[in-house]
Amino acid sequence: MAFSGLRGASSGLLAVLRKGPRLRRRKPHTAPAPQSEPAPSPIASLAGLNQIVSGYLGPRDIERIREAYRFADNAHLGQFRASGEPYISHPIAVTEICAGWKLDADSLMAALLHDVIEDQGVSKQELAEKFGGEVAEIVDGLTKLERLEYATKAEQQAESFRKMLLAMARDVRVILIKLADRLHNMRTLDAVNPEKRRRVARETLEIYTPIAHRLGLNALFRELQDRCFKAIYPNRYVVLHKAMMAARGNRREVISKIAEAVRAALPAAGLDAEVSGREKSLYGIYKKMVEQKKSFSDVLDIYGFRVIVHTLPECYLALGTLHQLYRPVPGKFKDYIAIPKINGYQSLHTTLVGPYGTPVEFQFRTRDMDHVAEEGVASHWLYKEQGTSLNDLQKRTHQWLQSLLDIQSQTGDSGEFLEHVKVDLFPDAVYVFTPQGKILSLPRGATPVDFAYAIHTDVGNHAVACKINGEFSPLRTELHSGDAVEVITSAASRPSAQWLNYVRTGRARSEIRHYLRNERYEESVAFGRRLLNQAFDQLSIPYPKDDDPQWERLAKGSGGASRTEILADIGLGKRLAAVVARRFAPENAMLETTAMAVDEFTSVTSAPIVIHGNEGQAVQLAPCCGPLPGDAIIGGIRLGHGLVVHMSDCPVAKRQQAREPERWIPVIWDTNTARHLTTRLELTVLNERGVLGRLAAEITEADSNIIQLTMPDEAASTALLNIMVQVDSRKHLAQVIRAIRHVPQVQKIVRAKG
């Protein structure tokens, strides 16, 4: 059975091999084709799709696809593309691409129906009833979200990508159909205006092209790149294309000579190999010219050969044979068979110096490796009938798709989720070893923090140091291929916001942000409870029980979700504790008077908040004055930041207190504060030999540690030093200053504020 039997479609658009194409009659088009060129004849043919699917699907599956076509054809009745073609030609073309990958019948049905929900208002339920739940789920994953639900187009677009990628994580066929959809749109991009052409091309280059590479769809990846290049930089594309054609003619003799020599050398070594030539893509050449600041004439390796053999050992034998024929370029050999790329790509790469000094790249791979290299994860369907084992590729793909779900669970914002996914779509990778000898693939520029989170979330959250190739190194060190990495953990260690400045993987970034958000929330809840306790004490009423129904009424009345959210808002300064406490107070005049006094925070009898110094993000020591235990202090509730502790005489605090007196509360230091608070000292010293050594010795003798030392002035007879030191208290700082005075070259010491 084939598509030639589809006679009952509502519109009569059934162009098949036996009958030939028929014209489609449609309603007048509301948006006519551009006037610059004549609209193409409104003909769509199923001949190509008919030929492909008849070769690998059975009659029952073809009948199901026929029903999907009829439904889609009727749904898109009267709809035309910008080129003037009937809209149904687009789903047919997308389905042809998917059929070329030999996707199953459900996938081809979803490809035919992929726009009916978005464009024609067909419900997911209706699709499920007619074609099954699996088809409906795929189509729903391909459907954009309603634009009216979002404030901006960027927000809507980010949420659409999020939905599509999460649907892809559940079923990889979603992204395969989406990539086929985007490929056909890029092939027909000339029909739209230049501005939209560039916008669609940039979006494709930024999102869909890296996904195609990540899934190993290299043939699709290269075509999308070149089409995006042509749309974004049409003039550069034309110039580079002409240069490429000229270079092809100039080097034809050299390439032919190399091909003849290779085809003679391999059989002489007992190898039955298929040798084919290939050119670098135009975008690949352009990117190399930009990154390496080269002209086209300086890019020599624009042509290469692919050698396909039968077995894995023959790859290495063919490599050795050609290394004897031509001299290899040092440092240009890469073994992607022993260590596959992150997308499953396997091949041997080497660059040889051919006749006349022309460098030529060679790739050696088996037939199975070639299938995976060109079609990636799609080769699971394309070659599964041949018994090809793709367990490793499927495993890598599953791990990456699972990481999308992990990132989703840690991320609440669509834009942030898309940012993490973009970070994860690096085309280049480094390969590092765990202490057990396992190989991990990480994006280029990754650090030991990325490595730690790739091992396990708990390893990343408690990382405190690392060893690279047996030597201690900072956590921000960039990793290189071949590095052996060991992460040292501590139960007391916690993720730092500074890590976000140098992590490269989406998983590490989302895990760090998730931890910091949770930690901030928990600290804010605990500190909000302390502030609320103080407010209840001032009102002389008991703290309400956790199950008090007033909490729920208060939450509903103020837009909060729960008791803990109210406490977190108090801790973050979004609510005033006195106002919340008053909602629980009995109605009487005495308490109302007390509440008014509390609101102004002028009562001298109010109990101060005790500062321990280790409260975390809920309590911050103001950088403008850098208070230390022993200093007189005051606390200001800053919206979204919690409590900020200033010195009582801090000018910044005085100005803010004058503007918002209700947000300031009395605070005192705990008798046992946390150690390792930092402060900055400004030293005027005679610039003599050994002065820094003596300063370091004296500071160490005073049981302190230097965090940072800078000298902003140029070297002269007198220098100004800024030293950041760790101290326990104001008293400890005085000891450090006395120790520094023992250095005779020190002329002046000032505790810097701000």
UniProtKB/TrEMBL annotation:
<dbReference type="InterPro" id="IPR006674">
    <property type="entry name" value="HD_domain"/>
</dbReference>
<dbReference type="GO" id="GO:0008728">
    <property type="term" value="F:GTP diphosphokinase activity"/>
</dbReference>
<feature type="domain" description="HD">
    <location>
        <begin position="87"/>
        <end position="186"/>
    </location>
</feature>
<dbReference type="Pfam" id="PF02824">
    <property type="entry name" value="TGS"/>
</dbReference>
<protein>
    <submittedName>
        <fullName>GTP pyrophosphokinase</fullName>
        <ecNumber>2.7.6.5</ecNumber>
    </submittedName>
</protein>
<dbReference type="InterPro" id="IPR002912">
    <property type="entry name" value="ACT_dom"/>
</dbReference>
<dbReference type="InterPro" id="IPR012676">
    <property type="entry name" value="TGS-like"/>
</dbReference>
<dbReference type="Pfam" id="PF13291">
    <property type="entry name" value="ACT_4"/>
</dbReference>
<dbReference type="GO" id="GO:0016301">
    <property type="term" value="F:kinase activity"/>
</dbReference>
<dbReference type="Pfam" id="PF19296">
    <property type="entry name" value="RelA_AH_RIS"/>
</dbReference>
<dbReference type="GO" id="GO:0042594">
    <property type="term" value="P:response to starvation"/>
</dbReference>
<dbReference type="InterPro" id="IPR045600">
    <property type="entry name" value="RelA/SpoT_AH_RIS"/>
</dbReference>
<feature type="domain" description="ACT">
    <location>
        <begin position="680"/>
        <end position="754"/>
    </location>
</feature>
<dbReference type="Pfam" id="PF04607">
    <property type="entry name" value="RelA_SpoT"/>
</dbReference>
<dbReference type="InterPro" id="IPR043519">
    <property type="entry name" value="NT_sf"/>
</dbReference>
<feature type="domain" description="TGS">
    <location>
        <begin position="428"/>
        <end position="489"/>
    </location>
</feature>
<dbReference type="InterPro" id="IPR045865">
    <property type="entry name" value="ACT-like_dom_sf"/>
</dbReference>
<dbReference type="InterPro" id="IPR004811">
    <property type="entry name" value="RelA/Spo_fam"/>
</dbReference>
<dbReference type="GO" id="GO:0005886">
    <property type="term" value="C:plasma membrane"/>
</dbReference>
<dbReference type="GO" id="GO:0008893">
    <property type="term" value="F:guanosine-3',5'-bis(diphosphate) 3'-diphosphatase activity"/>
</dbReference>
<dbReference type="InterPro" id="IPR033655">
    <property type="entry name" value="TGS_RelA/SpoT"/>
</dbReference>
<dbReference type="InterPro" id="IPR012675">
    <property type="entry name" value="Beta-grasp_dom_sf"/>
</dbReference>
<comment type="function">
    <text>In eubacteria ppGpp (guanosine 3'-diphosphate 5'-diphosphate) is a mediator of the stringent response that coordinates a variety of cellular activities in response to changes in nutritional abundance.</text>
</comment>
<comment type="similarity">
    <text>Belongs to the relA/spoT family.</text>
</comment>
<dbReference type="Pfam" id="PF13328">
    <property type="entry name" value="HD_4"/>
</dbReference>
<dbReference type="GO" id="GO:0015949">
    <property type="term" value="P:nucleobase-containing small molecule interconversion"/>
</dbReference>
<keyword id="KW-0808">Transferase</keyword>
<dbReference type="InterPro" id="IPR007685">
    <property type="entry name" value="RelA_SpoT"/>
</dbReference>
<dbReference type="GO" id="GO:0015969">
    <property type="term" value="P:guanosine tetraphosphate metabolic process"/>
</dbReference>
<keyword id="KW-0418">Kinase</keyword>
<dbReference type="InterPro" id="IPR003607">
    <property type="entry name" value="HD/PDEase_dom"/>
</dbReference>
<dbReference type="InterPro" id="IPR004095">
    <property type="entry name" value="TGS"/>
</dbReference>
